[in-house]
Amino acid sequence: MKKTGVFYHPSFSRKSYLTQGARLEDFPGAIEHILARDNVTMYESPPIEEEWILKVHTPELIRGVEADTLCSTAWHSAGGVVLAGEKVCTGEIDNAFALIGAGGHHSGRNYFGGYCCFNDVVITITYLREIHNIQRFAILDTDAHHGDGTRDLLYSDPDVLHVCFCGMDSVSNDGTKVDVAAPGGFWASRGRNEKDADDQYADKVKSEFYQRVVDFEPDLIFWYFGFDTHKGDYGSLGLSGRCYQKIARFMLQTAEEVTGGRLEVVLAGGSRTDIATNVIPPIIDILSK
Ligand SMILES: [Zn+2]
Ligand SMILES: [Zn+2]
Q1: How far is residue 103 from each of residues 134, 169, 183, 240, 242, measured CA to CA in Å?
Q2: Residue 108 C-alpha to ligand 2 middle, in angstroms?
Q3: Number of Cβ atoms within 10 Å of the Cβ of 26
Q4: Topology of domain 4-287, per CATH?
């Protein structure tokens, strides 16, 4: 049985950059039955300190985020992602699921937007390198959109494998920065049923990520889990919770082989409360089995 940490702050249920309402308004109630287990712990996400934000972003970006009311949860969001990475790397927990109120992958050194404020994962990588001397990381990004901020910040960093499922198809010369054209979408899914869409997407994740991450030998794996790809959400590729559960099982198994189980799942895009309530609990359940 795995020791799983869930990182959460009550502000994520009241306000989110990513919703018409509050997509996490059913949390933590929706995972109460999982939190009742001895091997699952919920931690309150602390606000990230400015010192760490400044190692990744400019002072101007921080002033911009401060002035944007949609970014009010950004400090606790990034702080939870950092704390989750730290607890996984020190062995206090085996894996983590970080809930967030504001996203990170569209945030670059001096720009932000698209539901993102501070680049949570890049700040976490910076922190783990400086404080815990952990160097190599792999990121799988299955949000519907290209992770431009993360890519820009890490482009010349050979110690990070970044595999991004989006609309593009490319591999950098050193093989560490990869974009994969995601299967699915309205036209592609015409005439197919939901099961086909789920299987095609999950199979593509396995075939594009597995060998690369095995060869890369990272110390920690991040999975940017966006459910904006869900049928009916704003980046729909016609997927359902079944697809995300397949990916979660694959990521857990892959982490077991490659990093001794060290895996951090970071919530990304997706707007609907009903979808969040349906798809997130089974992922945390899989992590903690
Ligand atoms: Zn997205
Ligand atoms: Zn991409």
Answers
A1: 24, 23, 23, 21, 23
A2: 14
A3: 17
A4: Arginase; Chain A (3.40.800)
Domain boundaries, the chain: 4-287
Query: What pLDDT digit, counting tens, does each position of 37-75 carry?
Result: 999 999 999 999 999 999 999 999 999 999 998 899 999
8 dihedral zone (left: phi>0; alpha: psi -120 to 50; beta)? beta
pTM: 0.96
Per-residue model confidence as pLDDT tens digits over 66-100: 999 889 999 999 999 999 999 999 999 999 999 99
Which residues lie across from 8 on neighbouring strands? Answer: 44
Which residue has tokens 């400044």? Answer: 54
DSSP for residue 45: P
Closest among 167, 114, 171, 116 to 144, alpha carbons compared? 167
What is the Cα–Cα distance from 200 to 177, expressed in whole angstroms? 22
Cβ-Cβ contacts under 8 Å for 227 (sequence gap 6 or more): 233, 244, 269, 270, 275, 276, 279, 280
Ligand 2 centre and the CA of 146: distance in Å?
A: 4
Question: Residue 124: phi, psi to the nearest 5?
Answer: -65, -45
**What is the C-alpha separation between 27 and 36, in angstroms, rounded?**
14
Q: Which residues surround ligand 1, an ion (CB under 5 A)?
A: 143-145, 226, 228, 235, 269
Tell me how far the alpha carbon of residue 147 lies from the centroid of ligand 2, in angstroms: 5
